Amino acid sequence: MAEWNRKPGFDLSGKRALVVGCANPAGRALALALAEAGADVAVASATTDGEEMLEARRIAKAVTEMGRRSFAQGWDVTLPTNVQVSMKQLGKEFGRPTILVYNADLPFAKPFEKVTDTEFARLQAVNQNGAFYTARSFVREFPEGEGPGRLIFVTSIFAERGVEGLAAYTAVKSGVIGLSTALSQELAARGFTSNCIATGWMDWTPGRGPDEIGANLLMRFIPMRRFGRADELGPLAVLLASEAAGYISGQVFHVDGGVSQHL
């Protein structure tokens, strides 16, 4: 990827970032956007799924090909000890990150009364508990004297909008927004910001149907009449990670083609 002329305040050169969660295309797009802006970027899977762990390594390779440092890890974000040990290892081998992007997402749709305890526990473990464990380890291991910290949580507009069949998913994703909001207050005096990027129907959303407008009734709910792309998340993440966004915290930014204003 070609170098771009970074404006003062948006340059991430010398920064270290960590992107957690590679099961969807957003993980790659977010990592490469931060690298393009100048950051060294470590990548971790959110689960021990083989394909996700392979993708973490592929993303790290792509970052190094851009001339940045990178490091790939296989995490299980549902296990707090695993997260803490992995973060410590990252600090030793890559350096402690000052930018965290939590992109772990376990999609789920099922009628409320048919959701099993096991399904809900797994959904909560990956989407909500993992966000808490990762953010906690990030703050615990934060390097002293290295400037402001940035926490960015990739969540969903369905954390704020009720849609049939998504009660369990909405419950846990709304908890991530609550976590981010609380951290924006608790960590503010230490120079941290905490924000959410909420996606709508993206071109990797399960069950979205065909991309053609005439063949997909879902499109009538999306003012832009198309699904979102992963590369449309990167620029916003760069902004939120940069010094230019130093006074932006506790916010939820919708990347959804206007759908949240339409529903």
TrEMBL record:
Keyword annotations of the record: Oxidoreductase
Keyword Oxidoreductase belongs to the record: yes
GO molecular function annotations of the record: oxidoreductase activity, acting on the CH-OH group of donors, NAD or NADP as acceptor
Keyword Oxidoreductase: yes
Cited InterPro entries: NAD(P)-bd_dom_sf, SDR_fam
Annotated family: Belongs to the short-chain dehydrogenases/reductases (SDR) family.
Protein name as annotated: 3-oxoacyl-[acyl-carrier protein] reductase
Organism: Tepidiforma thermophila (strain KCTC 52669 / CGMCC 1.13589 / G233)
